[in-house]
Design brief:
Structural class of chain B: mainly alpha
Oligomer: heterodimer
Largest sheet of chain B: none
Helix content of chain B: over 70%
Strand content of chain A: under 5%
Helix content of chain A: over 70%
Shape of chain B: elongated
Number of helices of chain A: 14
Distance between the termini of chain A: 10 Å
Number of strands of chain A: 0
Largest sheet of chain A: none
Shape of chain A: globular
């Protein structure tokens, strides 16, 4: 197991370098003076001169890339144009909101996705199977930004059941500990805040969970169907074991392996989906912040945010690979 | 009896696949949607009741026909500039079709060439190409598209280029895998023995044998290209006003969501139906053409 993890970690280096090269080059293939792009049109000559010196923009490209890597190593992602805050500080402030939303979406999609998948597989060709698989196909075919708006129209504007935006009602106090609001309200025992936080979290999380839910349901169903055809399931049934034991103890545990991989990969993809969902629900996370930066052409933020999300995506995929090896002993033997 | 046997032997496997596809009801439903979508895209100028960009002060925010206040003049209602939503949706099919064809076309051509070269020459070339593909895959794909358009500048053309680039790895991987597998087979050795050049072997001998998975991926690629292009346009990074693009129409309807729900809802349904069509058809194709890929 250890050599596998080590080998996988080694592979991380070229991937991350590749990611950094792409992000670095994007600025340079964009027409215009990089210094002006980074500082915006209103920058003074003095400021432009300073940033050229600081980033080495007058030096050859490979030297600039070297300097870029050196700054990355110290988490120096530059400053935003608009607030003059450090990009890294801004990311770390917004990151918990994005993670909270993604985890909530993932929990919803895993629970319902696996549930629908198992029921569909055990009742193959039943009306439930057809309906849930058509539902899953509709789920992956739906533009999530549109779904978010429809949910908002129905449940916030018409029925008034859920709020339209933000993470917390103004006026409700919550002492920040981890900046994950659900955790913070539990840690401080603030149940009013917890209720309010979950109430705000519901619509964005449901929106973001649709696509992964559909994919997890389809994967669980096909994986379960394959396992249910195996001889050891027949043996288990022949022994007279109750249906629930056969399904959960014998079949599901073996069907889980590809499902876990799918779930892990979806988690990474959620980071991309978060840009759309956060923008619609004005969720103050990294995604909305990146989108605002794109609108304001704040390239320091775009650069830093892209590096951050891609880095996270690569790390999540690494964890998925390792998990896969842990639950599937055949991998580590190879 | 012998005649029957002879008939069965002479039957090309292709017809079995067509039979299988035809028996799959959901795939046929998908195919019908796809055909209608393509026909609408082509015939939009002739079947649209109104001009999609023609604003009319007297017809602002008219509800759909079946709602109170609606009329058969504007079946799906009008937007805040008095433009007919049905006409904009019909023309939107044309824009989506174009985006899907161009971006999937870019990804297909570049991906197939890179994948074929990678699988055929192996070694350093293969390593270099496939590691670059891995790097492209290290970004959540919609993020990469957004960022690329942010740098290139928002426009439908740049959105198509960005989507095309992010889809390249899908095709490259499929073709590389198939080429690696096919290269070991006797017919490739035979072509080599009679002196066929590399290009001839790759494009004439090997590639036709990888078409199954490629066709499946292309159909599913159309579905995701329509979705991604709509997402980019929704964010203001793709089609610019007054182009009747479905994602841009949703974005426009967002500000009047409570006053005029139909402006935002109708284009969303159009996207859903078109994408669903390609997904249904693609799934059916996968079952018929390439059983290995079934999930």
């Amino acid at each position: 197991m250890f050599p596998f993890i080590l080998r996988r970690l080694m592979m991380l280096v070229p991937t991350l370098l590749g990611v950094s090269i792409i992000v670095f080059l994007m600025l340079h293939i964009t027409p215009g003076d990089p210094a002006e792009l980074l500082l915006g049109e209103r920058a003074t000559e003095q400021a432009l001169h300073e940033i050229r010196e600081h980033l080495g923009l007058n030096k050859p490209l490979y030297v600039q890339y070297g300097l870029f890597l050196k700054r990355l190593a110290t988490l120096d992602l530059g400053e935003t144009i608009w607030t003059r805050e450090k990009v890294w500080t801004e990311i770390s402030q917004r990151f918990p909101a994005t993670i909270e939303l993604s985890v909530a979406a993932m929990l919803i999609s895993c629970f319902f996705g696996i549930l629908f998948g198992i029921v569909s597989a055990t009742k193959q060709y039943s009306i439930f199977d057809y309906l849930s698989m058509i539902g899953a196909l509709v789920g992956v075919s739906m533009p999530i930004f549109w779904l978010g708006l429809v949910l908002m129209l129905v449940f916030s504007l018409v029925l008034g059941w859920f709020p339209m935006s933000a993470r917390l009602t103004i006026g409700i106090d919550l002492e920040p500990v981890t900046h994950f609001y659900v955790l913070d309200s539990i840690l401080t025992g603030n149940w009013t805040a917890l209720k309010d936080v979950l109430w705000h979290l519901f619509l964005p999380a449901v929106t973001l969970s649709t696509i992964p839910m559909a994919i997890v349901a389809r994967m669980t169903r096909s994986s379960m169907l394959e396992v249910l055809r195996q001889d050891y399931i027949k043996t288990a049934r022949a022994k007279g074991l109750p249906q629930s034991t056969v399904i959960f103890k014998h079949a599901f545990r073996n069907a889980l392996i590809p499902v876990v991989t799918t779930i892990g990969l979806q988690f990474g993809i959620l980071m991309g989906g978060a840009i759309l969902t956060e923008t619609i629900f004005a969720w103050p996370g990294v995604g909305k912040w990146m989108f605002d930066a794109v609108m304001k052409r704040d390239y320091m933020v775009i650069q830093g945010g892209t590096l951050f999300i891609a880095g996270l995506f690569v790390l999540i995929n690494l964890v998925v690979d390792v998990l896969y090896a842990v639950i599937n002993p055949r991998i580590s033997v190879q | 009896m012998t005649e029957l046997a002879a008939n069965q032997e002479s039957r090309h496997p292709f017809w079995d696949q067509i039979d299988q596809l035809w028996r799959n009801k959901t795939a046929v439903a998908g195919l019908i949607i796809v055909v209608v979508f393509v026909l609408v895209g082509i015939a939009a100028p002739w079947i649209s009741p109104h001009d999609p960009v023609d604003a009319s002060l007297y017809d602002q925010l008219k509800p759909p026909m079946w709602s109170s206040g609606g009329s058969s003049k504007h079946v799906l209602g009008t937007d805040d500039l008095g433009r007919d939503i049905l006409s904009r949706i019909l023309f939107g099919a044309r824009v989506s079709l174009l985006v899907a064809m161009v971006s999937v076309g870019i990804a297909f051509c570049v991906g197939v060439i890179l994948g074929a070269v990678s699988g055929f020459y192996k070694g350093t070339v293969d390593n270099l190409i496939m590691r670059s593909m891995d790097i492209l895959l290290s970004f959540p794909h919609i993020l990469l598209a957004i960022v690329m358009v942010a740098y290139l500048g928002p426009s439908l053309r740049n959105a198509m280029i960005a989507i095309g680039i992010i889809y390249i790895p899908r095709y490259a991987r499929i073709v590389r895998g198939s080429v690696l597998e096919e290269c070991e087979k006797d017919y490739v050795t035979a072509s080599r023995a009679i002196g066929a050049g590399s290009l001839r072997i790759i494009f004439i001998s090997i590639l036709p044998n990888c078409m199954g998975p490629l066709i499946v991926q292309t159909t599913l690629g159309f579905a995701s290209a329509i979705l991604d292009a709509a997402a980019l346009s929704f964010l203001g990074l793709g089609a610019q006003p007054p182009t009747p693009e479905w994602g841009a129409m949703i974005a426009q309807g967002r500000s009047m969501i409570l006053r005029a729900w139909w402006v935002m809802t109708m284009p969303g349904i159009a996207i859903l139906i078109a994408v669903l069509g390609f997904n249904l058809f693609g799934d059916g194709l996968r079952d018929a053409l390439d059983p290995r890929l079934r999930d």
